[in-house]
Amino acid sequence: MPFPNQPSRPFTRDDIERLHPEQLGCYGLFTKYQWVYIGKGDIRQRLLGHLNGDNECINQMPPTHWIGEVTAYYEDREKQLITEFLPRCNRKKGYKDRVISRLAELQVKPKCEICDHDNWTFVAQVIAVPVLDNDGLFVLPPPQIPSAGLVCNNCGNIRFFALAALGIDLEGETKQEEKVVVQKK
Ligand SMILES: [Zn+2]
């Protein structure tokens, strides 16, 4: 179910400061071309926060207008609306983008430690690095370290990054995606 029918309002400080505080609900930000973001909470406070630049993604594609809905059930309603409109800034980044931006945050050196080139292929699949058990014995199935892999295009050096150490939780991601698909039907 979309937002209730209403004229769209300009996403400007003047307009938003005139709102009554403490109206709880959901809101959607958009431009002429796309839905940018759907959020929830104290509508006035949240919109002012976005105007002040609290969301990097919204800053990158500034909305021109917004609409809203006052509701006590804003937690569930937000999920419904996100599933329906899939705004750009509510979409979860894919596995590759999450790993690459995390490595950049951690300032991992781009140059290959073997050959000094900086041209890598990102391995699209998660790599399970097998390990031995605590006594040094091989067991089946072997315990594994889920890792991201980068291959140096020049010398073939492979870099592994343990996903747990990067804070990338694949289980959460899969569940989230499944849920969205189920709700779409
Ligand atoms: Zn190399």
Give an overview of the whole structure:
With 185 residues, the chain is α+β, with helices and mostly antiparallel strands. The chain folds into 2 domains: 9-90, GIY-YIG endonuclease (3-Layer(aba) Sandwich), CATH 3.40.1440.10; 95-184, no CATH class. The protein is 33% helix and 24% strand. It has 7 helices and 8 strands; from the N terminus they run E-H-E-E-H-H-E-H-H-E-E-E-E-H-H. The protein has helices at 13-17, 43-51, 56-60, 74-85, 95-105, 163-166, 170-184; strands at 9-10, 24-30, 35-42, 65-70, 120-122, 127-130, 144-152, 158-162. The strands form 2 sheets. A 4-stranded antiparallel sheet has the order 1-4-2-3. Strands 5, 6, 7 and 8 form a 4-stranded antiparallel sheet that branches. It is elongated and about 65 Å long. It starts with 8 loop residues before the first strand and ends with a helix.
Please sum up the structure shown:
Helices cover 33% and strands 24% of the residues.
The helix content, as a percent range, equals: 25-40%
Low-confidence stretches: 172-185
How many helix segments? 7
Reading side by side through the largest sheet, how are the strands ordered? 1-4-2-3
The H/E string reads EHEEHHEHHEEEEHH
Give the total of domains: 2
Q: What's the gyration radius in Å?
A: 22 Å
Quaternary state of this entry equals single chain
Heterogens: zinc ion
- What is the mean pLDDT? 88
**End-to-end Cα distance:** 13 Å
Main sheet overview: 4 strands, antiparallel
- Which structural category do the helix and sheet elements fall into? alpha+beta
Could you give the count of β-strands?
Answer: 8
Beta fraction: 15-25%
Q: What would the principal axes of the Cα set say about the shape?
A: elongated
